[in-house]
Amino acid sequence: MPRLAFASSTGLMVDEHFGRCGRYVIIDLHGAQWDNVETRLLPPSNASGHEAGAFERAAALLSDCDAVFAAKVGPYAAETLIHRGIRVFEAPYSVEAVLNKLIRDGILQSGGAAAGGGHRSEAPCACAPCTERNRS
């Protein structure tokens, strides 16, 4: 059962940029059915632009999710999520349309964090979050 996070200001549309999103709708997908589980809030930042650690805080908030859907996701944010084994999708559509496409096309039937996908190997990593962490 994949758990999905949608960056949405209303719960109806995927209309938020991952790096600026403060509200995620969490949905569990059960075959051709889904359940709205909850809405998770990320407290707003006082900084302008992307503050250090913001992507990591969002990724931690969504750590039990298999995939994140946002209207836009920058490369560093995507790497942060992928590094944690969370699949990332840009999908600026209605939540219902995205869910129907996932079901119809079987997109999350294989891969993803629950099936061992993502970036969780023991090998050294050269992605931006790891490289930055290793410099400190």
Structural overview:
The chain is of the alpha/beta class. It contains four helices and five strands. The chain has a five-stranded mixed sheet with strand order 3-2-1-4-5, with helices on both faces. Strand 2 and strand 3 form a beta hairpin. It is globular and about 45 Å long. The relative contact order is 0.20. About 10% of the residues have low confidence.
Q: How would the blueprint of this fold be written?
A:
Elements: E1 3-7, E2 23-30, E3 33-41, H1 54-61, E4 67-70, H2 75-83, E5 87-90, H3 95-105, H4 128-135
Parallel strand pairs: 1-4, 4-5
Antiparallel strand pairs: 1-2, 2-3
CATH class, named Alpha Beta
CATH level 4 superfamily = Dinitrogenase iron-molybdenum cofactor biosynthesis domain
Net shape = globular
Q: Tally of extended strands?
A: 5
What is the CATH architecture assignment? 2-Layer Sandwich
Number of domain units = 1
Strand order of the largest sheet: 3-2-1-4-5
Low-confidence stretches: 111-124
Q: What integer value in Å does the Rg equal? A: 15 Å
CATH topology descriptor: Nucleotidyltransferase, domain 5
Would you tell me the overall average pLDDT?
82
Task: Give the distance, in angstroms, between the N- and C-terminal Cα atoms.
Answer: 37 Å
Q: In DSSP terms, counting alpha (H) and pi (I) runs of 4 or more, how many helices?
A: 4
Largest β-sheet summary: 5 strands, mixed
